[in-house]
Amino acid sequence: MAAITINLTSKITQDNDTEIFTRHARGTMTEKDGIIRIAYAEEQEIPVKMLLKEDELLIRRGVDQNNYSFMRFIPGEKGKCRYVVEGRQMDMVSVTNLLEYTAKEDGSHQLRVEYDLFNGLYLISNYAVTLIFT
């Protein structure tokens, strides 16, 4: 298990409005049998766990069974997603437009995910997320 520093940039577009967020966190990364696991705390209090396979990314973010989100990204496919807030569940679907992982020569790693998030047939938002970890 290696200690890493994560630099996350998230671009969210909803209708004609776009917001960009940047966050930094310390975390850990393990790699075994082609599977990468990343763990960190968002804003130093919300645990985030990622599991990256060759063409699939799973993300679980949350503090307990009553407050969490689960996202699944597979390039070119729909993935089932779930948001649970105070025990109330909302199922959604992500359509992954890009999932790209690159290990750089300087030892850093970059993970890019671009996806559309739907509630039924309704497009909620478009997301472009880049994580750089060193």
TrEMBL record:
Gene3D superfamilies listed in its UniProt record: 2.40.128.20
InterPro entries: Calycin, DUF1934
Protein name: DUF1934 domain-containing protein
Native source organism of the sequence: Lactobacillus kefiranofaciens
